[in-house]
Amino acid sequence: MAVLMLVNVIVLFGCGESAESSRKVARVSVKFSKPASIYGSGHLKVDLTYLGKVPKKKIGSSDPYCGEDLVSDDLLVGENKELRDAVIYLDIKTDKKIDDQGEAVIDQKGCLFVPKITLAKPGDKIKIKNSDETLHNFHIVSDFNPEINSGMPNKGSELIYQPTAAEFIKMKCDVHPWMGGWIVVRKHPYYAISGPDGLAELKDIPVGKYRLHMRHFSLGHMEQEIEVKENETTSISVEFVKEKK
To answer: pLDDT of 79-95, one tens digit each?
Structure first.
């Protein structure tokens, strides 16, 4: 809201003017605008759903421990089409640091990676576990981070993986080819993963317009322009469909 201030400016007329004119006063109105806040922030809430059919894809494992009824976790969708395991993030320039999340753990459990997607920052130490009574291996495929391919033969086997650069890192188990997952290493805190309710939230975003990225590792990548307003929550709904190959 603009603030109006009146400033009295006395104008003295030069020699040769009459006494009457020398007493004239010019009143000038000067309008000052209150500067917009550069420190405001808002929130973003994204509701993600999947429109297509969800195949109950059985693995058909030859490993008796894993069983023949194991179902793939590549596409997890709720009863009301809520899409799980979608990663959202912003194109944003920021110096804001990522809060320390404590120890991240990725478990090989039930012949799947749990969780399937893990958020981390460069330098984090991630514990990899094997909770199954069968042989697994932990295999990282990466462009910018350390690669590793280590056997985890026994229940209770553990190792530490430490990413060094921002990247989407693929992890897999070669013993069980259906086992896959991702470590999302990011430079700033404006990343989130949708849960079983299909919701993903970003908080305390500086006011402004941004490009929002939404990635599901089986369905593809989408983008949308969004605007974050001060002290408001911007809510959007996004529907994914399977990419045609």
So the answer is: 999 999 999 999 999 99
Tokens of 104: 């991240």
The 10 Å Cβ neighbour count of residue 3 is 8
pLDDT (0 to 100) of residue 217? 96
List C-alpha distances in Å: 17 to 13, 21, 26, 27, 28: 7, 6, 16, 19, 21
**Cα gap 173→150, rounded to integer Å:** 10
Note whether 181 and 85 are within 8 A (CB).
Answer: no
> Considering only CA atoms, which of 77, 48, 44, 45 is closest in space to residue 238?
48
Q: Single out the residue of 41, 45, 42 nearest to residue 200, CA to CA.
A: 45
Query: Per-residue pLDDT tens for 126-184?
Result: 999 999 999 999 999 999 999 999 999 999 999 999 999 999 999 999 999 999 999 99
Mapped to the 3 state alphabet, what secondary structure does the chain carry?
A: CCEEEEEEECCCCCCCCCHHHHCCCEEEEEEECCCCCCCCEEEEEEEEEECCCCCCCECCCCCCCCCCCCECCCCCECCCCEECCCEEEECCCCCCCCCCCCCEEEEEECCEEECCEEEECCCCCEEEEECCCCCEEEEEECCCCCCCEEEECCCCCEEEECCCCCEEEEEECCCCCCCEEEEEECCCCCEEECCCCCEEEEEEEECEEEEEEEEECCCEEEEEEEEECCCCEEEEEEEECCCCC
Rounded CA separation 48/50 (Å):
7
